[in-house]
Amino acid sequence: ETGVTQTPRHLVMGMTNKKSLKCEQHLGHNAMYWYKQSAKKPLELMFVYSLEERVENNSVPSRFSPECPNSSHLFLHLHTLQPEDSALYLCASSQGLGRGRSGANVLTFGAGSRLTVL
Amino acid sequence: DAKTTQPPSMDCAEGRAANLPCNHSTISGNEYVYWYRQIHSQGPQYIIHGLKNNETNEMASLIITEDRKSSTLILPHATLRDTAVYYCIVSGQGFGGTSYGKLTFGQGTILTVHP
Fold this sequence. Notes:
Chain A is an all-beta fold. Chain A contains no helices and eleven strands.
Protein backbone atom coordinates (compact mmCIF):
# COMPACT_ATOMS: atom_id res chain seq x y z
CA GLU A 1 0.00 0.00 0.00
CA THR A 2 1.27 3.43 -0.83
CA GLY A 3 0.00 6.93 -0.19
CA VAL A 4 -3.01 7.62 1.98
CA THR A 5 -5.64 4.91 2.44
CA GLN A 6 -9.12 5.54 3.79
CA THR A 7 -11.65 2.97 4.96
CA PRO A 8 -14.47 2.42 4.53
CA ARG A 9 -14.96 4.04 1.15
CA HIS A 10 -18.72 4.15 1.69
CA LEU A 11 -20.67 4.19 4.96
CA VAL A 12 -24.37 4.43 5.66
CA MET A 13 -25.42 4.99 9.26
CA GLY A 14 -28.41 5.97 11.29
CA MET A 15 -28.47 8.99 13.55
CA THR A 16 -28.09 6.87 16.68
CA ASN A 17 -25.18 4.80 15.43
CA LYS A 18 -21.54 5.07 16.40
CA LYS A 19 -19.02 4.48 13.65
CA SER A 20 -15.44 5.37 12.84
CA LEU A 21 -13.56 6.38 9.73
CA LYS A 22 -9.98 5.21 9.42
CA CYS A 23 -7.05 6.75 7.61
CA GLU A 24 -3.57 5.31 7.20
CA GLN A 25 -0.61 6.97 5.55
CA HIS A 26 2.47 5.16 4.26
CA LEU A 27 4.51 8.26 3.42
CA GLY A 28 6.39 8.78 6.66
CA HIS A 29 4.60 12.09 7.24
CA ASN A 30 4.12 13.57 10.68
CA ALA A 31 0.92 15.59 10.18
CA MET A 32 -2.55 14.33 9.30
CA TYR A 33 -5.77 16.14 8.51
CA TRP A 34 -9.51 15.60 8.21
CA TYR A 35 -11.45 17.61 5.64
CA LYS A 36 -15.18 17.55 4.95
CA GLN A 37 -16.68 18.11 1.50
CA SER A 38 -20.44 18.57 1.39
CA ALA A 39 -22.33 18.60 -1.87
CA LYS A 40 -21.53 21.70 -3.94
CA LYS A 41 -19.43 23.23 -1.15
CA PRO A 42 -15.68 23.76 -0.89
CA LEU A 43 -13.56 21.45 1.22
CA GLU A 44 -13.66 22.46 4.89
CA LEU A 45 -10.76 21.74 7.22
CA MET A 46 -11.94 19.92 10.33
CA PHE A 47 -8.82 18.87 12.24
CA VAL A 48 -5.04 18.91 12.03
CA TYR A 49 -3.17 16.31 14.03
CA SER A 50 0.45 15.51 14.65
CA LEU A 51 2.55 13.70 17.21
CA GLU A 52 3.46 16.95 18.75
CA GLU A 53 0.20 18.76 18.73
CA ARG A 54 -3.46 18.28 18.03
CA VAL A 55 -5.19 21.32 16.61
CA GLU A 56 -8.94 21.50 16.58
CA ASN A 57 -11.16 23.65 14.53
CA ASN A 58 -13.51 25.16 17.04
CA SER A 59 -16.44 25.11 14.67
CA VAL A 60 -16.50 21.31 14.45
CA PRO A 61 -19.39 19.80 16.50
CA SER A 62 -18.44 17.46 19.30
CA ARG A 63 -20.22 14.57 17.57
CA PHE A 64 -17.01 14.36 15.51
CA SER A 65 -13.91 13.39 17.48
CA PRO A 66 -10.49 12.62 16.00
CA GLU A 67 -7.95 10.19 17.33
CA CYS A 68 -4.35 9.85 16.23
CA PRO A 69 -2.70 6.89 18.01
CA ASN A 70 0.53 7.25 16.02
CA SER A 71 1.91 9.21 13.12
CA SER A 72 0.58 6.75 10.53
CA HIS A 73 -3.02 6.38 11.65
CA LEU A 74 -5.90 8.79 12.07
CA PHE A 75 -9.48 8.06 13.03
CA LEU A 76 -12.64 10.10 12.98
CA HIS A 77 -15.17 8.81 15.49
CA LEU A 78 -18.77 9.59 14.66
CA HIS A 79 -21.76 9.51 17.00
CA THR A 80 -25.30 10.85 16.92
CA LEU A 81 -24.79 12.41 13.53
CA GLN A 82 -27.37 14.41 11.63
CA PRO A 83 -28.44 13.97 7.99
CA GLU A 84 -26.65 17.23 7.14
CA ASP A 85 -23.39 15.53 8.13
CA SER A 86 -23.65 13.42 5.01
CA ALA A 87 -20.56 14.27 2.98
CA LEU A 88 -17.26 13.08 1.59
CA TYR A 89 -14.69 12.95 4.38
CA LEU A 90 -11.13 13.31 3.19
CA CYS A 91 -7.97 12.47 5.04
CA ALA A 92 -4.62 14.00 4.13
CA SER A 93 -1.07 13.91 5.39
CA SER A 94 2.00 16.08 5.06
CA GLN A 95 5.48 16.52 6.38
CA GLY A 96 4.96 19.33 8.85
CA LEU A 97 7.74 21.76 9.53
CA GLY A 98 7.06 22.23 13.21
CA ARG A 99 6.21 25.20 15.32
CA GLY A 100 7.81 28.46 14.39
CA ARG A 101 8.95 27.39 10.95
CA SER A 102 7.45 28.34 7.63
CA GLY A 103 7.64 26.86 4.18
CA ALA A 104 5.72 24.88 1.63
CA ASN A 105 3.30 22.31 2.96
CA VAL A 106 2.19 19.81 0.36
CA LEU A 107 -0.73 17.62 1.36
CA THR A 108 -1.38 14.14 0.01
CA PHE A 109 -5.06 13.21 0.11
CA GLY A 110 -6.78 9.87 0.34
CA ALA A 111 -9.69 8.89 -1.88
CA GLY A 112 -12.24 9.77 0.79
CA SER A 113 -15.01 8.08 2.74
CA ARG A 114 -18.50 8.81 1.46
CA LEU A 115 -20.81 9.04 4.49
CA THR A 116 -24.59 8.97 4.33
CA VAL A 117 -26.58 9.62 7.51
CA LEU A 118 -30.17 8.46 7.42
CA ASP B 1 -4.44 33.21 4.16
CA ALA B 2 -4.90 35.29 1.02
CA LYS B 3 -8.13 34.85 -0.88
CA THR B 4 -7.97 33.65 -4.46
CA THR B 5 -10.26 34.31 -7.41
CA GLN B 6 -10.67 31.83 -10.23
CA PRO B 7 -13.07 31.64 -13.17
CA PRO B 8 -15.84 29.14 -12.41
CA SER B 9 -15.35 27.16 -15.60
CA MET B 10 -13.13 26.82 -18.67
CA ASP B 11 -13.05 24.65 -21.76
CA CYS B 12 -10.06 23.32 -23.63
CA ALA B 13 -9.58 21.18 -26.73
CA GLU B 14 -7.70 17.92 -26.29
CA GLY B 15 -4.03 18.30 -27.18
CA ARG B 16 -4.02 22.05 -26.68
CA ALA B 17 -2.56 23.91 -23.74
CA ALA B 18 -4.91 24.73 -20.88
CA ASN B 19 -4.11 28.02 -19.13
CA LEU B 20 -5.91 28.42 -15.81
CA PRO B 21 -5.68 31.89 -14.21
CA CYS B 22 -5.78 32.77 -10.54
CA ASN B 23 -5.83 36.17 -8.85
CA HIS B 24 -4.40 36.55 -5.36
CA SER B 25 -3.89 40.28 -4.98
CA THR B 26 -3.61 40.18 -1.17
CA ILE B 27 -0.84 37.57 -1.07
CA SER B 28 1.87 38.24 1.49
CA GLY B 29 5.59 37.71 1.09
CA ASN B 30 5.85 34.32 2.78
CA GLU B 31 2.78 32.74 1.21
CA TYR B 32 3.05 30.01 -1.40
CA VAL B 33 0.76 29.43 -4.36
CA TYR B 34 -0.49 25.83 -4.57
CA TRP B 35 -2.50 24.12 -7.26
CA TYR B 36 -4.54 20.99 -6.67
CA ARG B 37 -7.14 19.28 -8.78
CA GLN B 38 -10.05 17.02 -7.93
CA ILE B 39 -11.55 14.56 -10.32
CA HIS B 40 -15.17 13.81 -9.56
CA SER B 41 -15.67 12.33 -6.07
CA GLN B 42 -11.98 11.58 -5.58
CA GLY B 43 -9.51 13.17 -3.21
CA PRO B 44 -7.66 16.30 -4.37
CA GLN B 45 -4.39 15.69 -6.16
CA TYR B 46 -1.40 17.97 -5.69
CA ILE B 47 -0.12 19.48 -8.95
CA ILE B 48 2.52 22.12 -8.25
CA HIS B 49 3.45 24.98 -5.96
CA GLY B 50 5.65 28.08 -6.07
CA LEU B 51 6.75 31.08 -4.06
CA LYS B 52 8.24 33.65 -6.43
CA ASN B 53 9.80 31.87 -9.37
CA ASN B 54 8.09 30.01 -12.16
CA GLU B 55 8.00 26.27 -11.63
CA THR B 56 7.66 23.25 -13.88
CA ASN B 57 7.19 19.58 -13.16
CA GLU B 58 6.00 16.55 -15.08
CA MET B 59 2.37 17.58 -14.73
CA ALA B 60 2.30 21.32 -15.30
CA SER B 61 3.97 24.72 -15.26
CA LEU B 62 3.23 27.52 -12.84
CA ILE B 63 3.78 31.11 -13.92
CA ILE B 64 3.72 33.70 -11.13
CA THR B 65 3.69 37.39 -12.03
CA GLU B 66 6.51 39.56 -10.74
CA ASP B 67 4.24 41.32 -8.25
CA ARG B 68 2.91 37.88 -7.17
CA LYS B 69 -0.67 39.10 -7.40
CA SER B 70 -1.68 36.51 -9.95
CA SER B 71 -0.56 33.20 -11.40
CA THR B 72 -1.36 30.83 -14.24
CA LEU B 73 -1.32 27.06 -14.23
CA ILE B 74 -0.43 25.62 -17.62
CA LEU B 75 -1.24 22.08 -18.69
CA PRO B 76 0.84 21.91 -21.87
CA HIS B 77 -1.08 19.19 -23.71
CA ALA B 78 -4.48 18.66 -22.13
CA THR B 79 -6.08 15.22 -22.30
CA LEU B 80 -9.60 14.07 -21.48
CA ARG B 81 -8.28 12.78 -18.15
CA ASP B 82 -7.39 16.36 -17.17
CA THR B 83 -11.09 17.19 -16.86
CA ALA B 84 -11.43 18.14 -13.19
CA VAL B 85 -11.91 20.97 -10.71
CA TYR B 86 -8.69 22.93 -10.33
CA TYR B 87 -8.02 24.76 -7.09
CA CYS B 88 -5.60 27.64 -6.63
CA ILE B 89 -4.69 28.07 -2.97
CA VAL B 90 -2.46 30.58 -1.27
CA SER B 91 -1.07 29.57 2.09
CA GLY B 92 2.02 30.16 4.12
CA GLN B 93 0.96 30.12 7.70
CA GLY B 94 0.19 27.08 9.73
CA PHE B 95 -2.94 26.47 11.70
CA GLY B 96 -3.10 27.17 15.37
CA GLY B 97 0.36 28.67 15.51
CA THR B 98 2.20 25.80 13.88
CA SER B 99 3.57 25.49 10.40
CA TYR B 100 1.33 22.61 9.49
CA GLY B 101 -0.91 23.24 6.59
CA LYS B 102 -4.20 24.97 6.52
CA LEU B 103 -5.13 24.84 2.87
CA THR B 104 -8.35 26.79 2.37
CA PHE B 105 -10.15 25.54 -0.71
CA GLY B 106 -12.45 27.76 -2.73
CA GLN B 107 -14.86 26.74 -5.48
CA GLY B 108 -12.08 26.30 -8.04
CA THR B 109 -12.29 26.20 -11.85
CA ILE B 110 -14.10 23.38 -13.58
CA LEU B 111 -11.91 22.52 -16.56
CA THR B 112 -13.58 20.50 -19.28
CA VAL B 113 -11.35 19.04 -21.98
CA HIS B 114 -13.18 18.29 -25.21
CA PRO B 115 -12.19 15.72 -27.86
